[in-house]
Here is the input.
Amino acid sequence: MIEGRVWKYGDDVNTDVIFPGKYTYQPLEPAEMAEHAMENLDSSFAKEVKKGDVIVAGYNFGCGSSREQAATCLKAAGIAAVIAKSFSRIFFRNAINNGLPVIELEDGVDDMEKGDTVSIDFEAGTVTHKGNAYHFPALPKEVLAILNDGGLIPHVRKQLGRE
Amino acid sequence: MGMSFAQKVLAAKAGLQSVAVGQIVEIEPDYCLSHDNTAAISKTFNKIGVERVKYPERFVIVLDHTVPASTEKYALGHKEIREFVREQGIANFYDAGVGICHQVLPEKGFALPGALILGSDSHTTTYGAFGAFSAGVGRSEMAVLYATGKIWLKTPASFKIVVSGKLEEPITSKDLILKIIGDIGADGALYRSIEFTGRAIEEMSLSSRMVLSNMAIECGAKNGYIAPDKKTFAFLDGRAVCEYTPVYPDADAKYEKVLEFDATRLDPQVAKPHTVDNVSPIEEVAGTKIDQALIGTCTNGRLEDLRLAGKILSGNKVADGVRLLILPASQQILLGALKEGLIETFVEAGALVLNPGCGPCLGAHQGVVAPGEVCLSTANRNFKGRMGSRDAEIYLASPATVAASAITGVITDPRAEFVGGTK
Here is the structure.
């Protein structure tokens, strides 16, 4: 169960605005990536984001390049979950693989505004906003197992008995 | 019930008789691609705790995104990659200058009908033009593929896009795919497998088909399949790295949607800033002043693209105040363009010819744009900040449109420069 402050964005938020291409081949640590998070979309984000905040967006969040830093930088910036009406498939995988929860939800998203508070109950599969509870479908068990292990690398290390 | 192409490939790779849409399968890809991001991937690989890449022969590594290295950091990344491929015995390594990965894999015979190819690059969809199932994945996933050779995939639903008619020069498959993306939207085929079919597709060259599959990701698709035919088999003759079995969808396959387009009398199309689906016919943007023009990339850097641009540029000069960049997709294409005299045409016109590679397409180096500038490009993305400044504007169009516009200095209908197809 998490409760977070909302950052609200529209449809088709692409990975070039989340994490610009000019940084993608520079060897950056996650904390350095977080300094550039949302740089081409919202210059206030990296400065003002707080641990536990939640991104709420429209359709096709994370479209474009496969760059995994788009997920890594949001996680490192402290984002607790991304709620969107839909996700691009590669970003969706990258988020799970980075241990960043992604919630596909159409209902209620249009009413959520920047600065609002939302609470997310992963076990019950609900997002609550201003007293209204919205249901989201559970992730497939294969995918949930990766998320629960904190991402793909810890998950595979566990599978291979490297822990 | 028959199966779509995606279902048939995924069932075969998973060792199952059939798979349903939405079913998650664990598979071993035939080939996996990574590029300059191999430096970062190799570090993630080291964190897994496995010493050796499990199947080195299944990995293809191409340096293309920042070649030749323009900073010390890029140079160090390339050095680390060369050491990694040597230590791990990865023989399929193509160093800086060979070309862009999405051109090099087909040229070297890895893009095979019925093959399952994954790459840590979103435009891995390109190999669908050869009848492969190919899709992008992330860096962590590629690191795990190095370690285990395995990955999970969800079976996508399928769209069939039927294109009737025939493209008439100087209208190209780029105009067609921009029209399709503009109509269905950036998420119009989200998580779907597209099968392109119809008379216009059958008549197209492999290079033209690659444009469609390359840009399938721009409407959200997982892959963009085109049925392999005589042209495909002829291209692969003597080139294929191994034997292959073409996979075709069943005649009674179920499609979530069937979309129809007509290639005949298609107007030149332009994607306006800052999304690929913000498409209009050229008349709506004609006259827009440009500062830079780019012809090339993994979308439109092939010989037929350069020939078309050469026809239009021959005997003309690039407009004052415009930089025209030519970016061949591979060394082989550069060589072909040299032999055909196209490079001479470009240089005489005042163009700047870059080395094969990704160039400024993703804003990492070589020809990025300044605030307030306008770039007209044959690449596949025009997102805000993609080519450098977030305050620049990128328009996308065909090689013919970009060539014609470079001459006039404003976005120009190539048909005006190309009367009757003979110019």
